[in-house]
Amino acid sequence: MISLALVVTGLALALRGDLPFLRNPIRRVPAKIVRHDRRFEDGGIGYNPVFRFADERGQFIEVRDKVYMPFPKPVIGEMVEIVYPEGYPEKARIPYPMFRGLLYGFLGYLFIMLVIELTGWW
To answer: Which of 88, 97, 43, 26 is closest to 67 using CA atoms?
Structure first.
């Protein structure tokens, strides 16, 4: 039962983060990587890129991507395409469609298997 609660919480958090992307038109704009933030955790280092781009009003904004990498990639100065929901430039991110697909696929699979296990349906 606890496992099912954890999976449902994970799905809810992922959907909550993606809700503005589902409800609003998506803007695709170029952005420049300006630095990497480092995070030390469990004996390892994680890097996440910080990028700068112009929002709908032409004002420049810096946003830190939420995905940590084991190395500083993309490199500083590189131009990347980012996406954000119209009206929410602070939610900009580098699109990782495979990552998001695998995340939802894995959580969905766990949800289905746990429901089958708890209900004894199989």
So the answer is: 97
Q: How many CA atoms lie within 13 A of 46 on its CB side?
A: 11
How crowded is residue 51: how many other Cβ atoms within 10 Å of its Cβ?
23
pLDDT digits (tens, 9 = 90+) for 56-91: 888 999 999 988 888 888 999 999 999 999 989 999
> How many CB atoms sit inside 10 A of residue 32's CB?
16
pLDDT at 99: 86
Helices (H) and strands (E) in the chain, counts: 2, 4
**74-80, Cβ contacts within 8 angstroms, sequence gap of 24 or more:** 74/33, 74/49, 75/33, 76/33, 76/34, 76/35, 76/36, 77/32, 77/33, 78/32, 78/33, 79/30, 79/31, 79/32, 79/33, 80/30, 80/31, 80/32, 80/33, 80/49, 80/51
Entry pTM:
0.78
